[in-house]
Amino acid sequence: MPFIEEFLVRWPETQVEASFTDRMVDLLDEGFDLAIRFSGIPPDSRLVSRVLARDRYLLVASSDYVLRNGQPNDLSELAKHTCLAFSSRGYRQRWRFSDPTGNWNTVPIQCRLRIDSGEALHNGIMRGLGIALMPYFLVSEEVQSGSFVHILPSVMTEEIEIRCIYPSKRLLEPRVRRFIDLLATGLKL
């Protein structure tokens, strides 16, 4: 929303219709000018994909959850904790971490709640429902304020690409180009 707000202030003659859904939409069939997506973008020759920023996942829990349940001391202890994960239309978030040798391993978790909305997942963390793996930019304010605790900060997590997906450049309207440029400038992580 902060980007949309800034866009509307800069270009008051422009109208925005936004859909905040975490499902994979078909931009062309559903009439969207652009979509913001996180990693794992399936190839579609009808679309252009531009990386706006790169980020890392953080393991986080609310300070209340940590007070009630403690923190895991290593990845193997995650199985003893309640975890929350993102899941949408057949996609289930994998919790992958790098070991000291640089090999990536998926860690099994006890997931009591899978949610298809990043906002709902964020709210679940805030309410103390468990530990979640979230992009840094979505939880940075809470981690800095102390309301969220960064769990196992020395563990290396996967990088995530924040991408803008849009139809062919030749069909790109100037208002869409301005919004993409605003996002690219504002998402410097």
Automatic annotation (TrEMBL):
Domain of life, source organism: Bacteria
GO biological process, one term: DNA-templated transcription
Domain LysR substrate-binding: 1-185
SUPFAM superfamilies reported in the protein's UniProt record: Periplasmic binding protein-like II
InterPro entries referenced in this protein's UniProt entry, alphabetically: LysR-type_TF_proteobact-type (IPR058163), LysR_subst-bd (IPR005119)
Record-level Gene Ontology MF annotations: DNA-binding transcription factor activity; sequence-specific DNA binding
Family stated for the protein in its record: Belongs to the LysR transcriptional regulatory family.
Name this polypeptide is given: LysR substrate-binding domain-containing protein
Organism for this UniProt entry: Aureimonas glaciei
Species lineage: Bacteria, Pseudomonadati, Pseudomonadota, Alphaproteobacteria, Hyphomicrobiales
